[in-house]
Structure formats: structure tokens, C-alpha cells
Amino acid sequence: MRMTKKRFEDPGQPLRHAAEDKRTRRIGAPGPKRAVNVSIDKEILEMAKEMKINLSQVLEEELRQRVRQARIDKFTRENKAAIEWHNKFIEENGIWSEEYRDW
Fold first, then answer.
1. What is the pLDDT of residues 3-19, one digit of tens each?
2. CA neighbor of 40 nearest in space, from 52, 56, 27, 51
């Protein structure tokens, strides 16, 4: 097999883990859109339209924040024992690099 010199203009090969994966995609990263139906109070919808508020954008931003917080809460609950153990260990033994800290 003959090796050829790679040039910067040549497109690179995608990384194996670069494929779209729901588990690893950041919550803040925009993804494909999907149309959904929602029910909204008539008066607030009229006010939002008058103010030219983008309902899709507002809903997506709020959902993104709530999902992020729910994931943080779930992680904290599931890892409570480990976090408590780690904090207790640091309290009793200190930080291994404490002698190098200058702050």
C-alpha cells in the first residue's frame, strides 16, 4: 500500500464518535426541528403576537433550560453518596496539590 502525502485541502475523515448521538449531543446545541401542537391561553398568545415574540424560540429556550436543570438534579440525586464521600475525604485529607497552591 503506497502512502500519499496529505494536503490541507483534502477533506478529513470524520471521527468515529462524531456521528450524531442523542446521548452525547449537547443540550445547548441546536438540532433538527419538529413541528408540534401546543395549547396556549388566547389572551397571552394575542399579546405575544402583538409584541412580535417568537413563540418557537421562547419555548425552545425555556425547554432547554428546564431539561438542563432536570439533568443536573438527576445527576445530583444519583451521585449523592459519591459526592458526599468525596467532600468528606477532602475535608479529612485535604487536596493532594494543596502545597502547590498560591491562592
1. 566 555 656 666 565 55
2. 56
